[in-house]
Prior knowledge:
This protein is an alpha+beta fold. It contains three helices and seven strands, in the order βαβββαβαββ. It has a domain at 5-107: Aminopeptidase, CATH 3.40.630.30. It has helices at 16-28, 89-104, 117-122, and strands at residues 5-11, 49-55, 58-66, 72-80, 107-113, 126-134, 138-145.
Amino acid sequence: MNSDIVIQLSLGGQDLADIRNLRFEILRKPLSMPISGSFFPGDENESTIHVLALHHAELVGCATLLIDDSPGIQLRGMAVAKKWQRHGVGQRIVESAENIAIEKGKNLWCNARFAAIGFYERHGWNQSGEFFEVPIVGKHIVMKWTRTLVKIV
Length: 153
């Protein structure tokens, strides 16, 4: 794990240009989708929290936590720059999301791409329901993480 990575939280509309650019490069461009596909409803909500992984002020990873009145927080748009993948950046982002869920007394869930299931399972998340297809993007499944009383990081 890289100790030069700093996790920072951003609220609502802050830092959205950088977040959307990283989402585009990692999640949409490889599928030949337009950059508009990296704009998610709720990104600018005051209650939305963006988890940023920074290396010397450069955004190298991100995830968005959509928080509303429901019992769960949706994690979405998680992306890690190619050269930073498999260096613990995603783990740091997920752990930060889990700690936020604990603080808010909520559980987490996401629509995980088929290729990401193992990542989430290694972090204590469980599959829920049946696989479903997201047009252009591919096979997904809902993954859930249930908060515990104490999270040690």
